[in-house]
Amino acid sequence: MQALSAIYEIIAMLTNVLVMLIIIQFIIGLLFAFNVVSNRNEFLSAFYNSINRLLEPVLRPIRKVLPETGSIDFSPLVLIIALNIVLIVLGNVIYA
Questions:
Q1: DSSP characters for 78-90?
Q2: Which parts of the chain span the membrane according to its record (predicted)?
Q3: What are phi and psi of 50, to 5 degrees?
Q4: Rounded CA gap, 92 and 61, in Å?
Q5: Are 32 and 49 in contact (CB under 8 A)?
Q6: Residue 56 in contact with residue 36, Cβ under 8 Å?
Q7: Is 2 helix (H, G, I), strand (E, B) or coil?
Q8: What does the alpha-carbon distance between residue 57 and residue 60 come to, in Å, rounded to a whole number?
């Protein structure tokens, strides 16, 4: 039981890190879109591109399933909700 609990905690921590990366990607994207920060800022551009490369394989299948909504991308929100659902179900299975 303790091993399953430890595995659940590790998965929860990794999920939290992934959610934080999604939020950071969103915020940096907004800063670029509204010209608060220039795209020529090397540090933020490199950081944003690395986060995009990390998240793109996860977000691409979600984007294919979602209908076109114009310029608004709901795939990060869907991913966050799906990750939280998985954590809730996993927690109920382990601790029940």
A1: HHHHHHHHHHHHH
A2: 12-34, 74-95
A3: -70, -40
A4: 27
A5: no
A6: no
A7: helix
A8: 6
Q: Closest Cα partner for 12 from 76, 88, 96?
A: 88
- The pair of three-digit structure tokens given for residue 40, joined into one six-digit string: 């020529």
Count of CB atoms situated within 10 Å of the CB of 83: 19
What was the pLDDT predicted at 62?
95
Local structure of 34: helix, strand or coil: coil
pLDDT of residue 85: 97
Total residue count of the chain as it appears in this document: 96
Report the pLDDT value the prediction gives residue 69, as an integer from 0 to 100.
85
Tokens of 93: 């299975």
pLDDT 10s digits, 30-84: 899 899 999 899 999 999 999 999 999 999 999 999 998 888 889 999 999 999 9
Query: How many C-beta atoms lie closer than 10 Å to residue 88's C-beta?
Result: 10
